[in-house]
Design goal:
By secondary structure, the chain is of the alpha+beta class. Helices cover 49% and strands 20% of the residues. The protein has three domains: 102 residues, no CATH class; 175 residues, Nucleotidyltransferase, domain 5 (2-Layer Sandwich); 137 residues, no CATH class. It contains 17 helices and 14 strands. The strands form four sheets. It has a five-stranded mixed beta sheet, sandwiched between helices. The protein has a four-stranded mixed beta sheet with strand order 1-2-5-4. The two termini are 29 Å apart. The protein binds zinc ion. The site of zinc ion has 8 residues, from loops.
């Protein structure tokens, strides 16, 4: 009897009577026979109401618990049904597990913690479970967090963005809180309807409290924000504006590549054509042109020097891209003045892609100025997206977006899963 209570403690069982412990050779595991104690028994599995008995259900059930040393452990118990006055005939609640699942709460907590803190393979190998199982666990752990915490409370300044995953076949909309730096919402898709689901959950009263929304200039975001958050000032997300400049620069880079010597491609059977000479140098300087100057390595800096000497037109495009980055670094009135200068520079640049960009920026000038005034952090959106991209790589094996969204919320908001026994 004393032995049984030691096993009860070791398995973290509370409000539970341990009846017996044995080693089951057929499944190579310790099996702990248990039942809810007098206070915990005869309760509806869905709402916890004490209810009259209904039938014996489907007999004995097992729940996978945390390993004891090197050995797997199962909790085994009867699973009778009660007649709940709200839910009708329902399998009874057990103190050690969520309703209708095959793992204990401690196992769930450990799996969710590992998925957030380590890698997919570490989680699956250590716990000896399939990643699909981990996905279901993460989703229910997050559901429990959402049952007690409302992540959408008190939002004032938010950022909205879309990210692609599964090789751009799928999309998520993510909403970040600029004031806390947290991810507060994520949903599948990239459309006005998808974004409206966020505003539905937020509700009109809380949406009216939102003062600023930073986002890219996609029309569907603009439309949803204008309709659903009427008091919000829309701010252009500098990250996307600079991305436009990188696109414009890339048009110039391809032009330079097409015109450069060595462009002739020697084709021979069974081999891909190769470029040489200036054209190859331009092809290889792609990253040097894209990156921030502070992130360049020595070779990339040399590539830029070479472009400055040999292709003034491409160099001008590069300087325009950097000039636009400076606008957002300067911020405030300085940023606005810098943008005025930048626009007249771009219009006179004789670079078609930048003349076009100047027009596009002028169209969105109000939202860009709003950002320069209110300075919503570009770093937050960038870093959130980088983290989610890492998570999407981890969560690539999930068939549905729900576990991925739950993983992102658990990993990037302020309610991370706890270790078993430490809450
Ligand atoms: Zn019930």
């Amino acid at each position: 009897m004393q032995n049984n209570s030691v096993w009860g403690r070791a398995c973290g069982l509370t409000r539970t009577v341990v009846e017996a412990v044995r080693f089951d050779e057929t499944v190579d595991a310790v099996v702990v026979s248990a039942r809810p104690d007098a206070r915990a028994r005869s309760r509806c599995g869905r709402c916890g109401r004490r209810s009259p008995g209904y039938d014996q259900g489907t007999g004995r059930r097992r729940w996978r618990g945390l390993d004891a040393g090197t050995t797997r452990v199962f909790i085994e118990a009867d699973a009778p049904r009660v007649r709940c006055r709200v839910h009708g005939p329902t399998v009874t609640q057990v103190p050690w597990a969520r309703h209708g699942v095959g793992h204990t709460r401690d196992f769930d907590a450990m799996a969710a913690w590992l998925a957030v803190q380590t890698s997919k393979s570490a989680t699956c190998q250590l716990l000896r479970v399939a990643w699909r199982t981990v996905g279901s666990i993460i989703a229910r752990v997050n559901d429990d967090v959402e049952a007690v915490v409302d992540r959408l409370d008190g939002l004032r300044r938010i950022g909205i963005d879309e990210i692609s995953y599964k090789r751009s076949h799928r999309y998520l909309i993510v909403v970040v809180d600029h004031d806390t730096g947290r991810l507060v919402w994520a949903g599948e898709g990239r459309s006005e309807a998808a974004l409206n689901r966020f505003f539905d959950e937020l509700g009109d009263a809380r949406a009216a409290e939102i003062t600023h929304v930073s986002a890219d200039m996609a029309d569907w975001i603009a439309k949803a924000v204008a309709e659903r958050a009427p008091n919000a000032i829309r701010c252009a997300d500098p990250f996307h504006i600079v991305a436009w400049a990188i696109e414009a620069l890339d048009i110039e880079r391809r032009r330079a590549w097409n015109q450069a010597a060595g462009r002739t491609i020697e084709k021979s059977p069974g081999r891909r054509g190769r470029t040489s000479g200036d054209s190859r140098t331009i092809a290889r300087s792609r990253y040097a042109l894209w990156k921030n100057p502070t992130d360049l390595n020595v070779r990339q800096r040399q590539q830029l020097d070479w472009i400055a000497k040999t292709d003034p037109r491409l160099w001008r495009a590069y300087l325009l891209k950097e000039g636009l980055r400076y606008v957002f670094a300067a911020k405030g009135q300085d940023g606005k003045d810098a943008l005025d200068r930048w626009l007249s520079w771009a219009r006179r640049s004789q670079l078609e892609s930048f003349v076009h960009l100047a027009k596009r920026i002028t169209q969105h000038r109000q939202a860009i100025d709003a950002n320069l005034e209110h300075g919503l952090s570009q770093g937050l959106i960038e870093s959130t997206n980088t983290k989610i991209r890492l998570l999407t790589r981890i969560a690539f094996g999930f068939h549905d977006p729900e576990p991925l969204i739950a993983l992102a919320l658990l990993a990037l908001d302020s309610h991370p899963p706890h270790l078993p026994g430490r809450n």
